[in-house]
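Long-time lurker. I teach an intro course on protein structure, and each term I like to show students one example going from raw sequence to a predicted 3D structure in C-alpha cell notation. This year I'd like something fresh instead of my usual example. Would anyone be willing to generate the C-alpha cells for the chain below so I can use it in lecture? Attribution to the forum is fine with me.
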Amino acid sequence: MGRGQGLPPEAPDSERLRHYLPLLRGHGPVLVLGGDHEELAALLAVDGVEATGIGPGRDGDAATAALARLEADPPPGPFSAAFCARLLDHLQPDRTLRLLAAVRRALVPGGRLVAAVANPASYAVLAGSAWRDPALARLYDPLLLAYLCDQAGFRVDASETNPATRPDLPPWLLGDEPVVHPELAEAIGGAVAKLGLEHHYFGRPAGEPHDPAFAYNLAHVLKTVADRLAETQAAARGIALSHRALARALHEPAEVYVVAARLPD
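-- Reply from a regular --
Happy to contribute to a lecture. Here you go:
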C-alpha cells in the first residue's frame, strides 16, 4: 500500500504512525508489514527498538510479499511484536485469516499484534478516501477484525481509533453557535407593572381602575408570547446541538486498530 492512501490530508504518515509507538515500545524486535514499514522502522529505531520490515514486492502487492515471507520454512522470527496498517483491508476475509495466522507463526508466545484498517464508521472513509485506494478489497469493522484475530489464535485486548486520523470538521457543517436571548418574563412583568396591570400578569389584586378586558388581554398575550419564545428557543437550541453531535459522529477518525496477544499453541 502506498503512503497515506485512504487518509485525510490532515493526518500525515509520521503523525499517524507516532500514535502506535507507545504500543510497540518494549516489544522489540518488531515485524512491520506493509507500505509503512520503512517509516515506522525509522521511528522505532529512534526509540531504540529493533524492527524488520516486509514491504510491497515488485508488483507493489505488500500482502502477497508478506505471505510469501511469513509462510516460508523456517519462519522469520521469533518477533515480540508485529504491526500492519491498511494491509488487511487489501484482502478478503479468507486471505486476511491466512495472513494473521502467518503473523502468529512469526511471534513468540504472548507476542503483540497491532493491526490497523480503514474505519468503516468514518464519513471521511465512506465518502471517498477508501475508494481512491485501488487495492482496497473490503472494509473491516472492529468486531469482524477481532473475530478474525480470535480465529487465527490471538486474544484481542483493545480496539481503538487513531485520533491522528480524525478529519477537521468544516466550519460550515457546524454552523454558528445557537443564540439564546434572555428570559423575557421579568422584562414584560416590569413593563406591565408601570401600566398598573401587574395583577393580571402576576395574579395579584387590582390597583388603580382601568379597562378590565384590555388589561387582561394585554397581560395574557405578553405572557403567552414570552412563554412561546422561550419554548421555541429551547427547541431550536436542541436541534442545533443534535446536528453538531451528528456531524462529530460522522467524522470519526479514518483509522481503527486492534491490539492483540498471541495465544500459546
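Some talking points for your students: The first helix runs from residue 13 to 18. The chain has two domains: 13-168+253-262, 172-248.
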